[in-house]
Design brief:
With 119 residues, the chain is mainly α. Helix content is 80%, strand content 0%. It has one domain. The radius of gyration is 18 Å and the shape is elongated.
Length: 119
């Protein structure tokens, strides 16, 4: 009977390890997208933003809201740093980008929150 018993600590540790690995995988996916579009293929920022959105939605569907919100924050920061002028800073020079950033983040979070409740 004791051989079939799984300790609570082992289950929690396995769950925590799995969760941390998912956060690392979400961040790695963001950096893979940045590397691809910043180094290998030059595209406009709209394509990058839509790729980030698609990746965040996939992570949300597979792993849940926490991992997707983390990924959305990392994607927003890397998008700002690597693709919005002036590139290489967290400063946004164009006022249109100030309006587009929070609006797209709000849409992502709205889709994540209400997408979780729909399914």
């Amino acid at each position: 009977m004791l051989a079939n018993h799984v300790s609570y600590n082992r289950v929690v540790q396995q769950t925590m390890t799995k969760s941390v690995l998912r956060y690392v995988a979400a961040a790695a996916l963001v950096f893979a997208i940045v590397y691809t579009y910043h180094t290998l293929i030059r595209v406009n920022p709209t394509i990058v933003a839509l790729t980030f959105l698609l990746a965040v939605l996939v992570v949300s569907a597979r792993w849940g809201l926490r991992h997707a919100v983390f990924m959305a924050i990392v994607a927003t920061l890397t998008f700002n740093y690597f693709f919005l002028p002036p590139v290489g800073t967290f400063t946004i020079a164009d006022p249109q980008n100030w309006a587009a950033g929070p609006a797209s983040d709000g849409l992502e979070i709205h889709d994540l929150v209400f997408g979780q409740h729909a399914g």
